[in-house]
Amino acid sequence: MLQMKLCGDLVLRTTCAPVSDITPDLLATMDEMVNMMREQNGVGLAAPQVGILSRFLVMMDPDTETVYRMINPTILSRSDALCTMEEGCLSVLGNDGLPVYANVSRPKSVTVEWTDENGDKKMAEMSGVPARIVQHETDHLDGKLFVDYLPSVKREMVMRKVKKRK
Question: Which of 5, 57, 99, 164 fits 46 for a cystine, CB–CB 3.0-4.6 Å?
């Protein structure tokens, strides 16, 4: 059974290795991650969040409830236009055990390429919330957290809430 890694665990700050083979174990792990994401009312979950240092993630478009299982996702382009929205993370929890939120500016739209669970290459232009989710989750694959985008004073305020929990 997979276990959620929390802020402070070094696995969340490690760059993940590409996936070379789509195995039954990988597919089972992705299915378990989808279940975890849904149980915790999340919209995305990346492999390092469950302690796996491989480049894959699961995410859901909250408007359509479409679930994406992305292996080796790459963001090919990002719009110049930015959008500021509130972000939280299942690995960045406050004293109450719930995600801590903060406003983060990111590109409004992205083009992303990935391999799906069947080994097929996919590409999509995503905007709005799905674009935000895929950027947030691919950041996890590079050892980045949403708090890294915050100004230092705001980051310290958010991390103070997180540190209380430890």
Answer: 57
67: which residues sit within 8 A by CB, 6+ positions away? Answer: 34, 58, 59, 60
Burial of 151 (0-12, 13-18, 19+ CB in 10 A): exposed
- Among 63, 34, 64, smallest CA distance to 46 is for 34
Residue 90's nearest CA partner among 78, 100, 105, 104 is 100
The three-class DSSP label of residue 162 is helix
CA 45, distance to chain mean position in Å, is 5
Residue 29 contacts residue 52 (beta carbons within 8 Å): yes
pLDDT tens digit sequence for 116-127: 999 999 999 999
Per-residue pLDDT tens for 74-104? 999 999 999 999 999 999 999 889 999 999 9
Distance CA 51, CA 161 (A): 23
Helix/strand/coil (H, E, C) string of 69-89?
A: EEEEEEEEEECCCEEEEEECE
What residues act catalytically? Answer: 137
Query: Helix, strand, or coil here: 127?
Result: strand
Query: pTM surpassing 0.70?
Result: yes
Q: pLDDT tens-digit profile of 5-48?
A: 999 999 999 999 999 999 999 999 999 999 999 999 999 999 99
